Write the structure tokens for this entry.
Amino acid sequence: MQFKKSDLPKILDSMAKEATVLAPMKVKGNSKFAPWGTEGELDFGAQNVLLPPKDCLFPQTEKMYRFETDGLKVNDFEVINESRPTVLFGLKGCDMQSILCMDDVFLTKGYVDDFYKKKRDDLLTVCINCTTVAKECFCDSMGGSPNGHAAADIQLYDLGESYQVKAQTEKGQKAVDSWQQYCNKDEGEIKEIACELKVDMDGVPEKLAGMFEHPIWEEISRKCVGCGICTFLCPTCYCFDIDTTKDGAEGTKFRCWDSCMFSEYTRMAGGHNPRPSKKERVRNRFLHKLEYFKERYDKNLCVGCGRCVAKCPVNLDITSFIDQVKEVASHE
Amino acid sequence: MSECTCHENPLVPQVCVITDIKKETPDVKTFRVSTRDGKKPFTPMPGQLGMFSILPVGEAMFSITAQGEDYLDFAIKKTGQLTDALHEAEIGQEVGLRGPYGNTFPVEDCKGHDLLFIGGGIGLAPVRSFIRYALEHRGDYGDIDIVYGARSPEDLCFKEDLMENWPKEKNTKVHVTVDQDLSGEWKGSVGFVPAYLESLNFSPEGRKVVLCGPPIMIKFCLQTLAKCGFKDSEVITTLEMRMKCGIGKCGRCNIGSKYVCLDGPVFTMEELSHLPNEY
């Protein structure tokens, strides 16, 4: 089945009655997933929105619990874990894949992160295939595809004037059932596309496992300015800090995004730092993306969205890095 | 997805109370902690960790030095913001505690072996949990030797155990050294742990080693142990890293694809030899 693009606002309106609907929007010059019904205009352009959707599952700052202290005592200890039904509408395949990476981190390996799980359970994912690709896109080299993602609750296919709808989970089917009044039979054909930018990941994680002491790290990290934009814009970067705000006797414990590109990140009380310079930090980031995560969760932690490639101020490009690794390996 | 039912929300601490504070050295105190209703907060195995907080100040991971019926002990050195505040704390101070975290010393694998514990400074704190366990299960282990060094006689942690309790135990010897003695009253060995260890000349035959201390001490002790013929697989250590979550999520305590808070803190030297040298 399919619905007309002109009916999209009505569908979003109806979903917004029961959930926060986050859609790709331009808001005051920023492009991000923003709540439908607030200021800003829908932006289903070729380019992915600049800010990744991770914030809706893993807020940039998230309150965890609050307390009040009175001398030696702790009073009024209260856990904060708020969530409401949310729809992520218009995800591209790369960003859908990033959610699967986050699921592995926050929901597996012995501990379930309650703050994440509550939001994840409340989330409906609606993917849209890409009709064009940006010059920095390389998802299909990283195991993804611009043509959709099988893990989305609902997959939409852009047919020009309309969207073809495919419910892929029970949750998705339930949502799609409520769109019936806007839907017709399928006409038209889904066009598949491919990324122009290619990298060859074949054997790269294995090669990197033997390159920890390689001079390549010194060389590529030289131009890094340690600004952390790569980790901020990365849809899969999930590292966080836990800290406290205080207002007199009241305190709140919160977690917030952190970045492995900052020296504070690993510096211990007493001063020892296992990753004291840019070289160790850049090495850790690339190895985490391309080797460590693969070893631990059997996925690449880079989904090929291209955001860091587009926005790194010194053009420290993960795709050129992968090319370089291929060369290094073939010389040896 | 493997789910864990060990805690409702693993990032939220339970409120506990400091019931006793003991000054070990000028910069180390042992804090005894129970729940508000006087129970043991949780039951760790030797080597495991607890995330300890003074709620308005901060939270940090510490090894659990000992446990009793209704308490956990943490020996903590004054080194930063949180530990400064802890050292100012009084009995009755309510604190946050979550855990236990991490793996444990291989108490089963070590059964039937002689044990050589080597500690330097505050490095005896995590090792002490295993020493106590071995003494409580005395029949499961062979000879126990404890080699310990500190900067000076007054910097020796757990003096009562070192000087009185442990030497009285069956087939248990304690060997103590200090880097220097300015008091002139120290009657024991003076010198660094690695050289002292070499002079004791332990045989690797049927013996496992548990080693913890400052990185420089570990480095030279490993050379000594190799000289004595100990294999990397028989030498066990426990690592320290900056940690925030304690449950393998927040990212910072990784060595390669392993998280020290979850896959560690206990590793054999053989296991570490397969990981990047970044700790």
